[in-house]
Design goal:
alpha/beta, 8-stranded mixed β-sheet, 3-stranded parallel β-sheet, globular, disordered N terminus
């Protein structure tokens, strides 16, 4: 019994060392101590050892087993303390989940803002984020910012945004329109190759709270799912099960549907309104003013907008100057597309055609210049 007390004391000290508040998880603590006591106590089905040496060895073995349990408990305590559906990725593990890297990359730019933290989102059941509409998972700490971009990919603007992010050693989340992705799949691939998180934003940016979609859930599902399939095809690999409704119009029945698909819904904490504010200086002012009031937030912008793309280098410099920290979101696993909607996207003949198999040089030739 004395050994059990020692083990419990070690557990408490270990949890304190890791900054974990044991009172938040009394059941876990009690269960662990009970397991430790069980591991250390001799099994009633086992006869008593015949010598003191055997007794010492048996107890030692049980102590080691109990300490392993304690070590595992302490190792995951930071995850337990996080809000539901969100865990902090460990920057030093160098691990990958599917194709989603969860390490903070090295940064060679001393003036860059850099990444502060990476969080991994478990989208099981379709959790919803963004305090403008949802209050369940407010996972950001004070002065933390998540950058998100809608309506891309778009020529010139998306590469400009990407360059600013890369120059500052940070990553962001892009909610792409499926049809746009079919026009420029190379830009989607560029974002994925750069380690950005790519989600979807419907097939053609329809307001799903309005008719005909409000009356016909199957038509609304098609708009959502074709977007998922198209972005997935453009990426030519895994994308995140992250979705944002156009105009942030989020019918309850469609949120429920996304839950059945294990796709997370993202609203926002801070809407930059850059779709109305086109001057770069005004975009910067809008974001910084709202952040100063809110203190933190998931920020909604549009890589579709030229003014936003032009604003990015200075906006990131201002975020750093004002002490903000950039957090990147990655999914626990990739989205799964549905074959029915994959076929619908393929039927659009956006990606390829049987008439487009010849190399361009044999189709188009300069005859005068």
């Amino acid at each position: 019994m004395r050994v059990v007390v020692i083990i419990a004391a070690l557990l408490t000290l270990g949890l304190a060392e890791f900054g974990f508040v044991a009172t938040q998880n009394k059941a876990d603590l009690a269960s662990l101590v009970a397991l430790a006591e069980h591991d250390i106590s001799p099994s009633p089905a086992t006869s008593e050892p015949s010598t003191p040496a055997e007794t010492s060895q048996a107890v030692a073995n049980r102590i080691v087993a109990a300490l392993i349990r304690i070590s595992d408990f302490i190792r995951i305590s930071d995850k337990i303390a996080q809000p539901a559906a969100v865990t902090s990725a460990t920057p030093t593990l160098g691990a990958k989940n599917a194709s989603f890297t969860i390490t903070i990359p090295a940064c060679n730019n001393p003036n860059a803002i850099g990444l502060s933290r990476i969080v991994q989102i478990d989208t099981t059941g379709g959790p919803a984020f963004g305090t403008e509409h949802f209050k369940q998972h407010d996972f950001l700490r004070d002065k933390e910012v998540v950058l998100t971009f809608d309506d891309g990919p778009w020529p010139r603007n998306t590469p400009m945004v990407l360059k600013a992010l890369q120059d500052n050693c940070i990553k962001a989340t892009f909610f792409e329109i499926g049809e746009h992705a079919t026009w420029r799949p190379d830009l989607t691939k560029l974002l994925v190759a750069a380690g950005m998180t790519v989600g979807s934003h419907t097939w053609s940016h329809k307001d799903l709270a309005k008719n005909p979609y409000a009356k016909d859930i199957e038509q609304a599902k098609q708009e959502i799912e074709m977007g998922v399939s198209a972005v997935h095809m453009a990426a030519d690999g895994p994308i995140a099960p992250f979705f944002r409704f156009p105009d942030l119009q989020q019918p309850a029945d469609l949120i429920a549907y996304l839950g059945t698909r294990n796709i997370a819904t993202f609203s926002t904490d801070i809407d930059s309104f850059d779709f109305k504010i086109h001057k770069p200086d005004d975009v910067i002012k809008s974001v910084l003013t709202k952040l100063a009031k809110n203190g933190k937030g998931i920020v909604l912008m549009h890589d579709f907008q030229k003014g936003t793309a032009e604003a990015m280098p200075q906006l990131l410099a201002q975020l750093k100057a004002n002490g903000y920290k950039i957090v990147h979101m990655v999914p626990a696993g990739p989205v799964t597309t549905l074959a029915k909607y994959d076929d619908m996207v393929k039927a659009q003949d956006k990606f390829s055609s049987t008439n487009n198999t010849r190399p361009e040089s044999s189709v188009v030739k300069t005859i005068s210049e």
